[in-house]
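Bumping my old thread because nobody answered last time. Still need a sequence for this structure:
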């Protein structure tokens, strides 16, 4: 099928590179060796890539030497290329080579669909997922080599080290969390990582993840959130409260002065320009998450963080035992993170059993269905606030006293700011440890330690808040 390849264009592009090696980078940005139809052309382009990596001249002699070492040199093919007139501009022709390569891949895909749907008789959901994955790979120009070779890997590693040297101070490799202590422990969230953020209810795990999302957005990154229990408007309210330092309760009822309205308007305008996407349908399975994220990532390549709130509300679209379902979900999320090359954060509930311990700080064994989650996660973070339990204990004491007809007096007051711990319980590529933060209740916001804390406007949670605990907000 001649419309699926054009040998003359392939020769012309290769000829242009040999006559003008400076054009190689422009061509290599558009196509790879796999996009050439003739094997001899693929081998020559691979040899050009090797010369480029090793800072060798991209010319006939060095290419011939490389190919002879591999037993792949085709003298006739080289002579035909050298006798072909070079092109004045290679971009359009390189794009034509890529276009035909995509068509060949699509033709191959139709054959693969028949094999997996009919011959192997796989379930329809699995067939659709495999087809979507392949289509995403084709549109993203993913490589089809089964193995990455040593020269390419070494080159990529050295480039990565140089990039880290340029960044210098922060030591953040992936997505910056926005929290100094967490960055120190994790070096940021790596591309392709699955991060589990786990806590008992009311600890603030959703607030923490929204803060992570906001920090990424403020650094120009794109963020996608699957919110399975909270509508998008509520998420946005929390984010605007954290961003403006206006208490969430005031935002909910619109109880604000002129200066606060102006601040809210400015923050809302800024947020509207961010690459921020929320799916709040409330019911998704792993197949839908994969399909939606692939589509979103192909339309918006700047997406560099995805959050799922929360894992136990997802289903696997199968009728398996719940432990097997969670295993399928966590493994699917890990594979999806690798495929899209973005970190995926999945929130998770913890077992109720930890509340019977004297020290209620979470451990890996407290994860629900922990085996699969612990195995697949690259990083597991626990959010813990001791004051949550102190407040609960005080309320229980007060309730007990009332039921006995006694008066209960306490000098305990619910503070507007509480110490919080983010415990790094697992870190595949770094140390474990504890990052100490401050949780500002009114704005549902976690911030770095006391010296870096952002002031807030305090609203009283109950009459027992001490007057000295109030903080005034300076003009922004």
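Sorry it took so long. Here it is:
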């Amino acid at each position: 099928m001649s419309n699926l390849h054009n040998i003359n264009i392939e020769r012309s592009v290769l000829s242009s590179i040999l006559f003008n090696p400076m054009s190689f980078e422009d061509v290599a940005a558009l196509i790879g060796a796999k996009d050439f139809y003739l094997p001899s052309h693929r081998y020559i382009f691979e040899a050009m890539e090797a010369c480029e990596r090793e800072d060798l001249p991209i010319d006939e002699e060095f290419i011939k030497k490389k190919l002879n070492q591999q037993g792949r040199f085709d003298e006739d093919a080289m002579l035909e290329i050298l006798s072909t007139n070079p092109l004045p501009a290679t971009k359009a022709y390189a794009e034509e080579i890529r276009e035909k390569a995509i068509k060949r891949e699509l033709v191959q895909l139709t054959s693969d669909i028949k094999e997996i749907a009919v011959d192997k008789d796989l379930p329809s959901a699995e067939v659709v997922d495999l087809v979507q994955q392949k289509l995403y790979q084709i549109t993203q120009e993913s490589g089809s080599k089964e193995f990455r070779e040593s020269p390419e890997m070494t080159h990529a590693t050295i480039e990565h080290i140089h990039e880290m040297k340029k960044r210098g101070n922060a030591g953040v490799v992936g997505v910056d969390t926005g929290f100094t202590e967490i960055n120190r422990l994790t070096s940021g969230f790596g591309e392709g990582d699955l991060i589990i953020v786990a806590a008992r209810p009311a600890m603030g795990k959703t607030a923490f993840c929204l803060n992570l999302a906001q920090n990424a957005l403020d650094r120009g990154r794109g963020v996608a959130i699957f919110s399975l229990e909270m509508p998008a408007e509520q998420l946005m309210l929390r984010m605007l409260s954290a961003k403006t330092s206006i208490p969430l309760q005031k935002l909910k009822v619109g109880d604000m002065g002129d200066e606060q309205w102006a601040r809210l308007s400015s923050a809302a305008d800024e947020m509207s320009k961010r690459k921020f996407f929320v799916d709040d349908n409330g019911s998704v399975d792993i197949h839908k998450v994969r399909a939606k994220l692939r589509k979103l990532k192909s339309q918006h390549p700047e997406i560099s963080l995805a959050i799922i709130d929360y894992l136990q509300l997802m289903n696997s679209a199968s009728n398996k035992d719940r432990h097997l379902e969670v295993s399928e979900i966590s493994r699917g999320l890990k594979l999806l993170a690798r495929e899209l090359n973005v970190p995926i954060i999945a929130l998770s509930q913890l077992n109720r059993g930890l509340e019977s311990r004297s020290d209620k700080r979470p451990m890996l064994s407290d994860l629900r269905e922990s085996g699969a989650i612990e195995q697949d996660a690259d990083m597991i973070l626990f959010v813990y606030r001791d004051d949550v339990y102190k407040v609960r204990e005080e309320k229980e004491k007060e309730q007990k006293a009332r039921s006995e007809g006694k008066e209960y007096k306490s000098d305990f007051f619910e503070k507007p700011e509480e110490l919080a711990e983010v415990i790094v319980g697992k870190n595949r590529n770094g140390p474990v440890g504890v990052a100490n933060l401050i949780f500002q209740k009114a704005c549902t916001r976690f911030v770095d330690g006391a010296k870096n804390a952002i002031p807030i406007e305090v609203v009283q949670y109950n009459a027992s808040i001490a007057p000295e605990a109030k903080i005034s907000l300076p003009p922004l």
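The chain has a mean pLDDT of 81. Let me know if any region looks off to you.
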